[in-house]
Write a structure and sequence with these properties.
By secondary structure, the chain is an alpha+beta fold. The chain is built from 11 helices and 13 strands. Helix 2 packs across helix 11 and helix 3 crosses helix 11.
């Protein structure tokens, strides 16, 4: 009889009833994050719209695996792979379990467990590129520094050793000769990072000194940036502007380039690159994120080299790309909250 009552309502009245249920039952949006500064624009936009949200400290967190329902309408996962540089490495590994838990109890999570697994594992990123038939710098994956020389012998120098869980360009060292690499190994100077896994990868000179980041939202192209490097960089990461390891700033991110006086410009990548990036984010189940690539100066090949499920968006975005990406992001969050609420409303109608 209850189902019959729901089915007897006019579509307009059903929509109004669902909207009423949404307004009465809407839970806050959970923003799960670790960096104290990066997401202030997101919080400001949520507050401007009067959307209820709660900050979740990813660095000092607990959850109960026995709970059956989340206190949040959805959770936005903004955990950073560079958290260990701020003494919060435990949050990286904790996030995998928390995301899995949320999904098990039916909570919508923006950039869930699959995206987290890709974001925090460069070896998985290379495997994903390979599965999609996309080109990337020639690489080997090692789990002990003693194998770095073996890997490098099969590569063209210069090479870089890049930690598997990095972020902000951390943990990347360039070697120009096999002898130099061997000396670093012999002197125990190779750090494989917090999961003791690293890439040994050919260093590729980017054509024109440009690296590129394509930002995606809801599987669609949002904007792209071209970053003009100094030509003296030593890695292929968002912090490529860094000159040498000793001068590297762990807090630097490609998205902060305008603040650092680095030249950036908005551009539209070729259609085939956008299509490739769409395939990457779909396979990685990334709701919002940036994909980075360069053009090999020797061959002209497009080489993908990094997948970022964490998007801070470019600084001074209105002047750089012509709009506020945080406003677009919150538009998307509103649609996701509405979808969750409509689904809950229909369940209420079916059992009212």
């Amino acid at each position: 009889m209850r189902l019959a009552l729901a089915e007897g309502l006019s579509p307009l009245f059903q929509t109004q009833l669902i909207s009423l249920i949404m307004s009465l039952t809407m839970k806050p949006i959970g923003i799960y994050f670790e960096h104290p500064e990066w997401f202030k624009p997101l919080f400001a936009e949520l507050e401007r719209r009067g959307l209820p949200y709660e900050k979740i400290d990813a660095a000092h967190h607990l959850f109960n695996p026995a709970e059956k329902e989340s206190r949040y309408s959805l959770v936005v996962n903004r955990m950073s792979s560079s958290a260990y540089l701020r003494g919060h490495g435990q949050g990286i590994f904790h996030t995998a379990g928390f995301a899995t838990h949320l999904e098990r109890i039916g909570t919508r999570i923006i950039n869930g467990s699959a995206a987290t697994a890709i974001e925090t594992n460069k070896a998985r990123q290379l495997s994903l590129f390979e599965s999609l038939g996309l080109k990337y710098p020639k690489s080997f994956v090692i789990n002990h520094a003693s194998r770095a020389v073996d890997a490098a012998r099969a590569l063209r120098f210069p090479i870089v050793v890049k930690v598997n869980i990095g972020g902000s360009g951390a943990g990347i060292i360039r070697f120009d000769t096999l002898e130099g690499l061997q000396a670093a190994v012999d002197n125990d100077q190779i750090d494989l990072g917090i999961d003791q896994t690293a890439l040994v990868q050919e260093y590729v000179t980017p054509r024109g000194g440009n690296i590129h980041r394509v930002e995606m939202l809801d599987g669609k192209f949002l904007y792209a940036m071209k970053v003009f490097t100094t030509g003296e960089s030593f890695n292929l990461c968002p912090a490529e502007i860094c000159q040498i390891p000793e001068e590297q700033s762990a807090e630097f991110c490609l998205t902060e380039a305008p603040k650092k006086g680095i030249q950036v410009e908005a551009f539209t990548p070729p259609a085939e690159v956008i299509a490739a990036v769409e395939r990457i984010v779909a396979a990685a189940k990334i709701d919002v994120g940036g994909i980075e690539y360069l053009i090999d100066d020797r061959t002209g090949d497009v080489l993908f080299y990094d997948i970022n499920a964490l998007s801070n968006f470019v600084a001074d975005a209105v002047n750089v790309v012509g709009f506020d990406p945080y406003a677009r992001f919150v538009d998307y969050l509103e649609t996701q909250v509405s979808a969750v609420a409509v689904g809950a409303g229909k369940d209420e109608l079916a059992t009212a």
